[in-house]
Amino acid sequence: MTDHAPSSLAGRLVARRVRYYYALIGLIAVMFAAESVMHFTYYTWSRWIVTGTALVATGLAVGSGLRAADLGLSRDTWARGARWAGVIIVAVIVVIGVALAIPPLRELFRNEAFQDLPWALWSAFVLIPALTVIPEELLFRGVVTGALLRRHSPRVAIALQAALFGLWHIESSLGLTTGNEGVGDVVGTGSTGAVLGVLGAVAFTGGSGVVFGWLRVKTGSLLPCLALHWAANGVGAVAAALAWQLA
C-alpha cells in the first residue's frame, strides 16, 4: 500500500492538471464563440453575449478556487491600481489631443461608426465600458491571466493571453479598412488592404495585450488595464467624432 501511494498521488495531480487545462481551453473556446455570435448576428441580445460570458466565467472561476487577487480585484491593490489608472487616462488624453492637432494623424481617427458626437459620447461612457472594456479585461487579464499565473511564470502568462487577445480581434477588424478612411488610405480598401488591416489589427492588439498583461502583473490590479483599455477605445471614439468635425 505504501509503495503505491506516491505514484497514486502523482497520478491524481496529473489528472487534476489535465482537467485544469481542459477547463481553460473550454473557456477560451466559449469566449471566441461568443465573440463570433456578437459580430455575425444582428439581435439586440447578442450585443451583450460577451458581457454575459465574462460575468459567468468570473463567477465560475471564483467557484473553482481563483481568488480576488488572482483576478486582479483584491482590495489591497485598489489604491495602487487607481493611481496608475489616473495617470494612464491623463496620458492617453494628452497623446490623442496632440494627434488630433496634426492633420495627417487626425485622418487616422475618422472612424465612420463615430461621426456623431452625442453617439460617440454615449458609446464612450456607456456602451464601450459595458460591452467591451469590462468584459474583455475580466476575461483576458482577469480569468485567463489569473488561471495561467497559477501554472506558469508571469512572462509566459502575459505572452499567452496577449496572443489570444490579438486573435480575438480578427473578426472585429474585418471591415477596418472600409470603416476607417485614414486606415483605408494607408493600406488600401481592396482585398490586400483588408488582409493588411486584419494583420495590423491583430499585431497591434496583441502588442497592446502585452502592455495590459504587464500592467496587470506589475500592479496586481485590473484597474490600470481597465483604464488603458477604456482610454484607448472611449477617448478614441470621442476623438473620432472630433476628427470628423475638424475635417
Automatic annotation (TrEMBL):
MF annotations from Gene Ontology: endopeptidase activity
Keyword Cytoplasm: no
Domain (CAAX prenyl protease 2/Lysostaphin resistance protein A-like) ranges: 119-234
Transmembrane portions of the chain: 20-42, 48-69, 81-102, 122-144, 156-174, 194-215, 222-244
Keyword flag Zinc: no
Protein name: CAAX prenyl protease 2/Lysostaphin resistance protein A-like domain-containing protein
Domain of life: Bacteria
Record-level GO BP terms: CAAX-box protein maturation
InterPro entries: CAAX_protease (IPR052710), Rce1/LyrA-like_dom (IPR003675), UCP026622_CAAX_protease (IPR015837)
Keyword line: Membrane, Transmembrane, Transmembrane helix
